[in-house]
Amino acid sequence: MKNKLKILELTNFSAGGCGVFARVKREASLLKRAGYKVKIFSSNLEKGTNKIMPEKDSFDGVNIIRFPAISLGGESFTRWNFTKQAVEYHPDIIIAHAYRHYHTLLAIKIAKKINAKVFLVTHAPFDRDESRALLARVAVRFFDKFIGPAVLKKYNKVIAITKWEMPYLYKLGVKKDKISYIPNGILDEFFLKDKVKEERKMIYTGRVSPIKDIKTLVKSVPLLSDKDITLEVYGPAENSYLKELKELTSSIKKRVTFIDKIYDSKSQIKEIDSSKLFILPSLSEGMPQVLIEAMARGKIVIASNNQGNSDIIKNAENGLLFKIGNPADLAKKIDFALSLSKIDSAKISQNARKTAEKFKWSKIIESLDMLIHKA
User: Fold this and answer.
1) What is the pLDDT of residues 352-373, one digit of tens each?
2) Is residue 168 located within the same domain as residue 259?
3) What is the pLDDT of residues 286-313, one digit of tens each?
4) Cα separation of 251 and 246, whole Å?
5) Are residues 31 and 143 in the same domain?
6) Mean pLDDT calculated for residue range 62-76
7) Are 33 and 179 contained in the same domain?
8) What is the number of other CB atoms lying within 10 angstroms of the CB of residue 229?
9) Which domain holds residue 292?
């Protein structure tokens, strides 16, 4: 019976501004609500700071167990051993998050030992060379050529969170019938119609780190025709990067505000609603949840044209795209968005909401539930 099945979710981080954990947290909560027994195992490091977090935590009846970790450089090279505790828990299904990570390899060995099914949720780690150092790029290519193809065959299912990563998975030898497309979801509350008054400002919400390329966004502000519109950057920040950003805004600091904090969904909705535009300037994205959340609120979104954003945004239909790392092109798109007539603006807003409807968690969890039943 479904309500007797045990599920173990594995993710590198369960604290800090982590997009992977945002998926894991909501997925685990809804699976628990559907009657499954669910636990989350992670490292004891906080995303973005490597601060040591408490061994145990919980939410919505789901327990989190954190394990001492060693970071060897980069998230993929974080090692933490949970074999003994996983065997004792003895799950029926292991859902391991993020391809190329140590814990996803260990999951295969544990699943074999206890005769459990094991799923890999990829989180679209492809096409991200811009964010990697040379040594990391070499390691990624080595893994994909000599290790990845053999490893991927051992999972019962490979869950892709985007459609654009399918060709990469095929190239790695994953058969079509082994891949399931189950994207990240967003809460139904993002579709509620209560709104706060809109202000003359733009907003970015999410992790404040180099891969999000907030610098390009900041550099676009002085280039705008509208000299009064302001920018608010809202989300947990990496300290060194935040310092660089503040130095960059020294001449326009009255127009740019940084709010360094982790937000909940209510705060996220309030901040999105109070802005005219939502901007996502990332160098790369897997499946950008914050973008879809803003679209659910009917905002005109402007995003860099990386594969993750372009997979969702159809330029001038449900949002706008600009050239990655190009402040002048971003400024041009912001000016265009601000000049739209009420009719054109409403049309893009309506299309954005229709796109976001596809990503409701209530729909996403049904797909995962069916996959678990078939396993």
Assistant:
1) 999 999 999 999 999 999 999 9
2) no
3) 899 999 999 999 999 999 999 999 999 9
4) 10
5) yes
6) 86
7) yes
8) 19
9) 188-357
What are the backbone dihedrals phi and psi of residue 35, each rounded to the nearest 5 degrees, phi first? Answer: 110, -5
Statement to judge: residues 204 and 349 lie in one domain? yes
Would you say residue 240 has pLDDT above 90? yes
Whether residues 35 and 164 fall in one domain: yes
289-296 helix and 19-33 helix, angle to the nearest 10 degrees: 70
Reading the block at residue 57, the tokens are: 């935590």
**DSSP 8-state assignment for residue 77:** G
341 CB-near residues (< 8 Å, 6+ apart): none
Whether residue 99 is found in the same domain as residue 127: yes
Q: Is 243 exposed, middle or buried (0-12, 13-18, 19+ CB in 10 A)?
A: exposed
**Strand ranges, E, within the chain:** 6-10, 37-43, 56-59, 62-67, 70-71, 78-79, 93-97, 117-121, 157-160, 179-181, 201-205, 230-234, 256-259, 277-280, 300-304, 320-322
Name the least confident of 34-43, 120-129, 158-167, 228-237: 120-129
Domain count, the chain: 2
Structural contact between residues 70 and 46, judged by C-beta atoms closer than 8 angstroms: no
Query: Are 28 and 70 in the same domain?
Result: yes
Residue with token string 């539930």: 369
List, for residues 313-365, the tens digit of each pLDDT value. 999 999 999 999 999 999 999 999 999 999 999 999 999 999 999 999 999 99
> For the chain, percent helix, then strand, then coil, each to nearest 5?
45, 20, 35
